[in-house]
């Protein structure tokens, strides 16, 4: 990364934050979006078309990050801080032990999958990448990611005896 790019990026931080706030209306999420944008911009600055305005390129990255975050939040559900609600903490160890055993069995079963299936499950289910992001990482079409993931989930379920 050259110094001019870094200086321009720093100059545009207030603009990025304003745009992020206009999208999400939450300061803490806006800060996260700006951070994601800067990380992606630094990572991919060599691929940027120099004919395109830096500001437009950064805004597009920020908007895509917002869309990704929104999609991810929709599938995550509502987060609850257990320290705010101690009554929801279980005193029964059986569910915890069962969850640990299932996690250990899942880890073991994943090692018995093909490398392709283990990789797609890791990217989407563990790392939380969207199908589009996984497709970009693997350099395959999004449909290929979806079909590989479906086959990997079925294979994992079969190995775990969950059919």
Task: Give keywords.
Rna Polymerase Sigma Factor, Chain: A; single chain; 8 helices; about 160 residues; about 70% helix; 2 domains; Arc Repressor Mutant, subunit A; mainly alpha
Written description of the protein model:
- The protein has 163 residues and is mostly helical.
- The chain folds into two domains: 3-76, Orthogonal Bundle (Rna Polymerase Sigma Factor, Chain: A), CATH 1.10.1740.10; 107-163, Winged helix-like DNA-binding domain superfamily/Winged helix DNA-binding domain (Arc Repressor Mutant, subunit A).
- The protein has eight helices and no strands.
- Helix 2 (13-24) runs parallel beside helix 4.
- The radius of gyration is 20 Å and the shape is flat.
- The protein starts with a helix and ends with a helix.
How is the topology of this model organized?
Blueprint: H1 3-11, H2 13-24, H3 27-43, H4 54-76, H5 94-111, H6 115-126, H7 131-138, H8 142-160
Helix pairs in contact: 2-3, 2-4, 3-4, 6-8, 7-8
Family: Belongs to the sigma-70 factor family. ECF subfamily.
Domain RNA polymerase sigma-70 region: 11-74
Organism: Paracoccus hibiscisoli
What is this structure, in a nutshell?
The chain has helices spanning 3-11, 13-24, 27-43, 54-76, 94-111, 115-126, 131-138, 142-160. With 163 residues, the chain is mostly helical.
